[in-house]
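Sample entry (296 residues):
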Amino acid sequence: MTLCRCNFAIAFIIVAVLGCSDHKGQQSGNRVEVSVQSSGSQEKEIGPRNELGFAKITIRERDNYQEGIVDVQGNEVVQPSSSMLVNDITGNLALVQLGGKFLFVPLDQGFVSSVDLDSVNKFQYAEPYQCGLALVSVNDARFYIDANFEKAFDAEFEFAESFHHDRAIVKDDGRYRIIDTQGKNVAGLNYDQVNPQSPWCWQVTKIDGEKYRSGFVDLNGNLITDLIYDYVGYYDPAVKRIPVVMNERHGFLDEHAKVVILVQYEYAEVFDRGKAKVVLNGRTFFINPDGIEVPE
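Predicted structure, serialized as tokens:
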């Protein structure tokens, strides 16, 4: 394998699966079994295999813990190391974290040793490829790289997120905007804060003194929910719900920021194993993601 040093990244010649799915990570394939092997004081665990059969392997022996990557036959393709964390395996490309830095490693170019990984430059931060581009950071500047590890559309941002459905939020010169995968402007966002939520919407917020008012825009920047919420929690992909608070009442929105559980509860917790504890008219009970009462 040939390693090529460049200004900011590990640069392998790769042929990778770089799709635009919103489901990322090692469980993206159909094979989700986990294999555990024990020998004396050593335990090896092979995680769920991705669509090409690659999987993370963890090795535990007394106080030592290592992570690496194996192929479909169980052969090591990235040497296990106690200083490495395997963040994502998609197609034949892995994103690993090594000593606080991030790098992309091809899995179809032969065995990669710890020495190989130590010998190349790395990103300050990186996220898995989405829609053919990966979000990375160098010297606190965020930008995108293509499959050849070249900087896409020659732009850097104060803030940026990974692409989904060919859209991403970026911030430059103190202003938020939506861009497409060519770096072209889709919409400007005249809000004080913009936060990622579900794959289908962003939370937007106006600040007036100590008052925060939030609503939601769609992937093209169109306002789909007025700025009426005092508080917005984090989107939960397991149940596809967004917790919100308005006038001290709690409720839940769906992934398109539409109300699916009325904003009527005096109190509501986030969903845990498919149900959430709520209080209505002083009565405490549990509901499912459709707002239907269920047993505790």
